[in-house]
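The passage that follows is intended for readers who have already worked through the single-chain material. We present the inputs for a multi-component assembly, then the predicted structure in tokenized form, and finally a short commentary. You are encouraged to pause after the input and sketch how you expect the pieces to fit together before reading on.
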Amino acid sequence: MPRWGMVIDLDKCFACQSCTAACRMENNTPPAGPGATDDGRAILWNEVLAFVEGEYPKTQVLLVPRPCQQCDNPPCTYVCPVKATYKNEDGIVVVDYDRCIGCRMCAVACPYQVRYFNWYAPAWPPALRAHLNPDPEVAPRPKGVVEKCTFCIQRLRHAKEKAEAEGRPFDATDYQPACVQTCTGHARYFGDLDDPESLVYQLSHSPRAFRLLEEMGTEPKVYYLKQG
Amino acid sequence: MERENSSAPAHETELERAVLNPLRKTTLPFWAAIAVLGALFAFSMGTLVRQWVLGLGVTGLNRPVYWGIYITNFVFFIGISHAGTLISAILRVTNAEWRRPITRVAEAITFFALILGAMQILLDLGRLDRVLNVVIFGRFQSPLLWDVTCISIYLLSSTLYLYLPMIPDLARMRDRMASAAAADVDGKKGFWSNWRYHLYRIMAVGWHGSAEQLRRLEKAIGLMAILIIPIAVSVHTVVSWIFGMMMQPMWHSTILGPYFVVGAIFSGIAMLFLFMTLIRKMWGLEKWIGAKQYNYLGILLLVMSVFWAYFTLSEYLTTGYGTLVHEQHVLQAKLSGEYAPWFYAMLLLNFFVPFAILIRRKGRTPVGTVIASAAIAVGMWIERFTIIAPTLTRPSLGYEKAVYTPSFTEIAITVGSLSLFAMLFLLFFKLFPAISIWEVEEGEHIAAVKRKAEELMAQPGPAIVAASVAGGPAGVPAGVPAQPLRNME
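Having made your guess, compare it with the prediction:
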């Protein structure tokens, strides 16, 4: 069983936000509009965070694309009172939208703030609505539940089905999330972290590799390669 | 029990008249209070319906401030529910005689505060329609389920604990209304009087005051008084663990459990002061709820205020002395950031104001304790708020500072909840006696026996009687004055 993980090279990323846009189109997250975004209500499974350090004129900005860190030791799943969020057999943390009671305990427990709450019923302008991803696995979520990045888990299913239809064994390279596929600077790598031959294995063992809030013991499966 | 069967108010004792009269006659201020509280509650229901229709977007909550003043209210109400446990159970177990006139009020606060507290969690759920999932799919790994379990047990046991000591009083009211109900066979007197008679009759469960019934009741109350203390402590501990089990700065602290329990008992006593003074004033019970209760309970409140200050100092000094980056951000938000006014108001209202008033004997009067208690009630709400909001606005992955401003809906529902709490309390004591009559009578009886014994000892009589009452040495020569014996007690 592959241990799916991602490596993001911060030297190659130029914060074009195409990952954010691709994620939105793939996973049907509703646009919040400028007002609600300012209120902290935007739903973006992938976000490019800006860490600003120092005072003008000696300011440094570190831009970090942040999908769900897919922790191996996910604090969000422990606190769910109804097991609506859990790590599935592929090691990916998912949410059961039909079971979630909307208490938002998981969202408070996540140190990376990757969990998003549906404050209102989701809505799209007609032009965008026409282009929703028809996959039932990413059907729009109802109001009052929590949702989050799943490493585009529907793509994993598609890849497995395709391999089966073509009568060949499923290979780890058959599957990649939308943000990885679309990344303009080829800054994102995806694959099996347990396979020593894989690119993500080698990059995650690079001296440049680090993980967010590593000291918390959450064991994220998203690695970053240091800038500069 | 001749007196029990009499229905004429003329035969009533002073205590019965004082306690039961408010149940018979309703004053204008009472209806005015109910009307105001009812209007506020009805208005908040309107905003709540709007929230259910539109979604939690009508609140000021956002990412990452996922919890706001609904959760603050939840902790606050569960906190004041500790009034009944402390006063009633602990004072009953330790046989403090002065507790008798105020246990009923304390137990009622517990009951209604618990209901309101549990309601706050329901208001905060995104999917109230799926709340039964907690029962169907509930798993004990989540601190939320610890809360559901402990609060359910506490609600069950405090309902029982409110009801059991009320049975003899219910029987008394049943008997008062029995002749009136019997005379009204064809129901000419109207539904109202009969309705209350049947309520008391059913709730009195055939109590007739026999020695065996009394023995069993005392045993049950004694057992509940002991059981309810660990249950109450568990409830507020797990409430704190909703926060304490999260790896969030200034939540993930071992002090949180005991800190919340101390805060709960503290705010519970303050709430008891406010409500027992209200009932005392509206129902005219000054003779029974008097100087002794205000003085002793005032000392307890003072002690809890000092305890609270000690816990606060421990927590903030430990955090401040360290250099953990994420915790420092939260601490700075409270000491010098946008939460500083809240933080200093909390210190003022929870410690400095109550301490200055209650440290003096003259301050432990109805006026003094009500001022101190009002300060504490507000201060403890602020304390819960300054535990929740500053941490959530400064998460560990701090790329930007979040802001939380409660919306009109949240404030309206908070006001509505407080109104509902007060309204339920007043209506309850319109239907049931505010003072436990039989327990106060029992106390008077015990006091009378004690006085009698002292009188006997004071008399220059057969020394053998005095000696046996006082437990003094036998064989004192007859005719010796009892005075020296009393000194030996």
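Commentary: Residues 211-244 of chain B form the longest helix (34 residues). The CA atoms of residues 125 and 131 of chain B lie 8 Å apart. How closely did your sketch match?
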